[in-house]
Amino acid sequence: MTITTEKILRKIKKENIIPSPRWMFVVRDGIFWCMFIISLLLGALSFAVLADLLLNHDWDIYFHLNKSFMQYVLLSIPYVWIISLLLFAWFACYDFVHIKGWYRCKVYVVVSISIIASLVMGIFFYYSGVGRQIDQILSDRIPFYHFVSLDKNWIWCNPHSGLLGGEIIDIKFDNGKMIVKDCHGNEWLIKKIMIHPNIFKIRAGEKIKIIGKELNVGEFEAVEFRSW
User: Fold this and answer.
1) Record: fold of 152-227
2) Rounded to two decimals, what is the model's pTM?
3) How buried is 80 (Cβ within 10 angstroms: 0-12 exposed, 13-18 middle, 19+ buried)?
């Protein structure tokens, strides 16, 4: 028996140290495994929202807002979702290193697996439309969400700048007109919709983005239609 072992045994006897039951370690590992999986899942959802915001953003309309391209890019970057993605990746790594036996894996392996797992699930969520749904729900239900993420309503409620978006109230193909309610609740008569073949795919109740020009109060001439 070594000197170190003897010292440990004497300390155990002296301080009457009682070993913790095995079930406590099992529960502890279970909790960290759950937290690890939840962190990966939240990271994947953050990636899905981030991908939707970046890939479906209207990067070509900056001149309508009197911004340079770089100014528009800086305004459009969803910083909160980038931070969320990095934060949940860190949480996943933190939870993993508290799981029994983690030392058998190298740190870079753990980090790589966490990132790859979040990306794979995030891509699945993105193509499933989950990212867009999350962004829409947060935009509709959280008043301050537009302060931390670029608000489509802020961009597409600029009829004076040629940008108008909102919900289609009524559409009539026979006379080439439709009624759209904007983010402020104002109704607009949209003219010249017959020159756009893709407009036939749009129905009342859906949201739409329109590029064109304001004619009069409540009247807007369409040049281009885009899905919301």
Assistant:
1) OB fold (Dihydrolipoamide Acetyltransferase, E2P) (2.40.50)
2) 0.74
3) middle
